[in-house]
Amino acid sequence: MKILFFIAPLCIFLLSGCSTSSQFHIKDLAKTNIDMVSEIHMNQINDLLKNLTVKLYKKNPYELQKVQSQTINSRLSQIFTCPVVKKYKEIDFKESTDAILLGFEPDFKGDRVFALMHGLYTMINKSYNSKCELFMLDYLNAQNLYNSARNIEILVWRLNTRKRNDGRLFILTNSFEGEIKNLSYERVFGKLISLQDTMALIVSNRTGRIIKEVVQIAGMTFLPIGI
Fold this sequence. Notes:
55% of the residues lie in helices and 3% in strands.
């Protein structure tokens, strides 16, 4: 009976807190600390990816012009959907690393930035079990998170080395402006890699599973990310 007297006020407190604070939701009670940390990482990653998408379109405006009536905002709405339920004919219905690779195909006539960013977003989303939110039964795979970080490194290498037949890079990123070296893209990619590596270590420590590290070789293929 005493337990009931204790629980009842607690429930009232939690419910009243829900009505007075937009930061608290009843569903959060079903989440562990690791779930909340994962979501913080996911939100940070999404913000970085959106920022990167805008930067790439401003640097490569001709890519946006390849598809009529598209704007940066419309592309952001198409890329950043969760759950990812729609596949796009213009990129041959490809996702994840397959879409990224399409962006570097010499014969591809479509929007390379869209292919690249849709692929990057869906690849990272897949490393989080393709979830929009994580609850205590949603166990992440540290190897998938680690592999996604290595795939971002491979993508950066491709961006800096893959060129068209005329010698131009497929997608422009870093550039030199006078004597000032613009490395803002490198910083964004570096943050993405760091977030994924950190999350991989957190999950590995939680599950006790050892991450199989891979030696990076220039030009190597993307690593698999399974669910």
